[in-house]
Amino acid sequence: MFRQGPRLATTPPPFASLFLLFAIAAVSLPSCYAKPPAVDDTPRRPGDWGFHPGDGAACRRTPPGFVWRPQRHASSYHLQISRTPEFQKVEYEATGIGFNCHCSPKALAPGTWYWRYRFANAKGQRSQWSKTRSFRVEAEAVAFPMPDRPELLARVPKRHPRTAIRPEDVDELRKRVKTDLKPQYDVLLGRCKEILSKPPSTVEPPKYPEGHPPLLGGGPPKSQLGFKMWYESYHRTIDALNPVGTLALVNLLGGDEKGEYGRLAKKLLMEVAAWDPLGSTDYRYNDESGMRYAFGFSRAYTLAYHLLTEAEREKCRQVMRVRGDRMYQYLYPKHLWRPYSSHRNRSWHYLGEIAVAFRGEIPEADDWLWFAMNVFYNVYPVWCDDDGGWHEGIAYWRRYMELFTHWASIMKATMGINAYQLPFFSKTGYYAMYLQPPGTEGGAFGDLSAKTTSARNCRLLTILAAQAGNPHWQWYANAVGKYRPSKSYFAFLQGALRKVEPEPPTDLPSSRCFRGVGLAVLNTSLLDGTKNVELALKSDPFGSLSCGCDAQNSFVFYAFGKRLLIRTGCRDAWASAHHAGWVWHTKSTNNITINGQSQKKHTADVGGKIASFYTSKDCDYVLAKADKAYGPLAKRFDRQVLFVKPDLAVICDRIETPEPARFEWWLHALNEMDVRDQKAITVQNGKALCRVSLLAPTGLTIRQTDKFEPPPLPKYKMRQWHLSAQTAEPTACCEFITLIRPYREGDPPSFDSSIEQTPYGYRLKAALREGYVLVGLRSADDATVELEGLKKKAALVAMRFDGKGSRSWARCFPQEESAE
Question: Which of 427, 445, 341 has its CA nearest to residue 389?
């Protein structure tokens, strides 16, 4: 600060002149001389999609989708890809990228690559380059480049219709409704007559009463009244718009001789167009209604386009411009970096449907479509892995995949893009095959999965089999049910499915690991669930987010198609007292609590992992680690499972805490368990049974109840049984060793078993129907297991002996070594 004298100086002092010159220079220098903006390369946080491909990642698709942390003040991005970390030669680059992601229109050859990015701000200043990250394109990687923006947009037809059918396809479809598609078309004709005789209500759904606000993002109000109205609103939206598409399509194909279907379609569409776009069906007010309005109206509009006057079309455009903008502003840009939202993972492709239907008519539609396709190529699907698994469970997988097949059909018809070429879509049918072999009741983990049956997978697996050309999936679809084509007009537009010859999965292993979602499914048979014994173990890198809210290292156990050891509770209402207090709590699963306390609930920051997996016709092994699951309550939680097929499952748990604690080992069943002592716990469901023996530690206090704390809403009538086995004294390290033996009613096996402590840990012997198994378990990480003359630095060593006492096999885990 200058010191002010008694009078103003007419000439500034020399140092002031110098300061002034530097200030002028800083302002007037070109931006290239200014300090470049800094790149935020902070690693992903819970809920972030993260940098893709991650450093050192192996890519089964070429090119991969590149995603980076969005940069503050960025107006555009610059991506470079090279064969060398020094970038002496840039093999591919893209400038002026508007999103924090990019997928190249050019496939990359197999081998190691490097990538980096930078950004420019509104002043044109360029940042420094980001950290250089490497990735490897696998030799078998699928080529799936993304068309650039001009090409992609140009693929959308200029004329209507353009949803799952192109204008040039209409004449051919008119011929086919008289031949191979006549049975399905006759169903549509019958439906039109029904609609004509009883038109749907087009009264706009009411808004919630005062005091019942929706959740942020348009979720259901927490009150029972608001929740009921939320669901009624989206059902009314469906009921109002679906008939419009049916009537308009039949009119388009020449099945409306009197024109009465067309007149009614037009009338209904314009009545629904009069609904307030910021009212009760606004996406931000009721997201389910908003999504159904988005795709229902768009599909109906493009099919009914020829029936509308220009003034009526303009009214439709005005309505959908508001609705589309509301969706886009909610999704962009956050969904490109934080995409772990169940509902948003549908709404992006419904925005895409608006864009396809109104491209060239709504100015922003090009941006919406380009955004939707960037989501597809760079951050979809999110709850999965390339092995085909799904974090949220089979009920959500089935529903979301069924809905996605609609968008897949639109992409293929409109833009010539085949989603089923991607690794996930080429393998995801195995998720159902392994979790629910034909005749299985129960879907293991995830909201709404408990009671679902294998038969529910028939329709989706038929579609997936046809699209991917997979004979195993077609066999499965045939085995679980009979495919009945949907009666909807959109299913008709998707066309007849190509025929795939079924092939039973006799060439596949009976067990499978979906490592990216932390799910190991151990089976004795894929051919018949009523003859199968299944143990599914979850230790999920995604944590307990969204509808995949189960605790880490949880397991379920089924036998002969029946649920025996189950996850419990229900989603009576999202985040209700019961849902959040019981279902999200570790005590609701076959798992372990610490001093009665749960693992951290409903968060990504508890991710587990399947650290080791082995399968053979004789036995399976899994090591699951969930060290972060309990937060500060525990520093280690390992669960090992040895499945000696088909007679015995051995579960070995090791849990360590910073301070001594009491532990509760939980077990759950549909019916009351017969408890003689901790080594003789019998579970039964129909004619399927299992005997559970808690061999270690001894002195456990057993309690059983059929009460939920807290209970579900009164309308949910359910009774399930919960057993807890609590340790006698506090300890900082606890090891549980458990046997589970499945059997049919009237045919019990031998339950003989023994366990003894050894210098390395434990030696276990358990009877099988023929012979017995010996298992050596170490308690210290560096211990050497000694079993029948075999010495191995392994966590678990197992040997099977036949009825004559001869050893038939030996295995060492987790590193599989030949011990024959």
Answer: 427
Q: Which two tokens stand for residue 273?
A: 């167009």
Within 10 angstroms of residue 498's Cβ, the number of other Cβ atoms is 9
Confidence of residue 34 (pLDDT cuts 50, 70, 90): low
For residue 211, count CB atoms less than 10 angstroms from its CB and return exposed for 0-12, middle for 13-18, buried for 19 or more: exposed
Nearest alpha-carbon partner for 599 in 573, 572, 626: 626
Please tell me the distance from the alpha carbon of residue 309 to that of residue 439, in angstroms, as a whole number. 54
CA-based angle 800:801:804, to the nearest 5?
Answer: 170
Other residues' Cβ atoms within 10 Å of the Cβ of residue 240: 27
Residue tagged 């629910």 (tokens): 436
Q: In what order do the strands lie in the sheet with 648-661?
A: 609-615, 619-625, 636-644, 648-661, 731-744, 688-696, 680-685, 674-677
* Residue 15 or residue 118, greater confidence: 118
Q: Which of 684, 514, 513, 657 is nearest to 597 (CA)?
A: 657
Q: Which residue has the tokens 């458990």?
A: 738
3-state secondary structure of 415: helix
For residues 157-186, give the mean pLDDT: 92
Residue 249 pLDDT: 96
What region does 395 belong to: left with phi over 0, alpha with psi -120 to 50, or beta? Answer: alpha
Task: Provide mean pLDDT across the span 588-614.
Answer: 94
| Residue 431 in this model has a pLDDT that exceeds 60 | yes
- Nearest C-alpha neighbor of 809 from the set 771, 764, 780: 771
Q: Which two tokens stand for residue 382?
A: 């999110």
Retrieve residue 739's tokens.
């046997």
Global confidence as pTM: 0.89
Residue 139 has, within 13 A of its CA and on its CB side, a CA count of 0
Strand partners, 563: 558
> Which residue's entry shows tokens 């018949």?
528
Residue 696's pLDDT band, with cuts at 50, 70 and 90, is very high
Whether 450 shows a pLDDT value over 80: the answer reads yes
Q: For the beta carbon of residue 482, count every other beta carbon within 10 angstroms.
A: 10
Amino acid at 496: A
CB atoms within 10 A of CB 700: 20
d(CA 199, CA 115) in angstroms, rounded, equals 57
Phi-psi region of 771 (alpha: psi -120 to 50; beta: other; left: phi over 0): left
Tell me the three-class secondary structure of 78-137, residue by residue.
EEEEECCCCCCCEEEEEEEECCCEECCCCCCCCEEEEEEEEEEECCCCECCCCCCEEEEE
Between 681 and 13, the more confident residue is 681
**Nearest CA-CA partner of 565 in 444, 438, 433, 709:** 444
pLDDT, tens only, 313-348: 999 999 999 999 999 999 999 999 999 988 899 999
Distance of CA 128 to CAs 36, 102, 244, 774, Å?
6, 19, 54, 61
Element (H, E) at 554: strand 554-559
Closest CA to 565 of 644, 652, 665, 634: 665
Neighbours of 626 (CB within 10 A): 28
Give the list of residues 6+ apart from residue 399 with CB closer than 8 angstroms, or none: none
Are the C-beta atoms of residues 730 and 769 closer than 8 Å to each other? no
Count of CB atoms situated within 10 Å of the CB of 449: 24
Using a 10 angstrom Cβ sphere, with 0-12 exposed, 13-18 middle and 19 or more buried, the burial of residue 279 is: middle
Please report the pLDDT score of residue 29 as a whole number.
45
Best CA proximity match to 447, nearest among 586, 345, 567: 567
Would the pLDDT of 9 be above 60?
no
Task: Compute the chain's Rg from CA coordinates.
Answer: 31
Q: Which of 343, 413, 393 is nearest to 521 (CA)?
A: 393
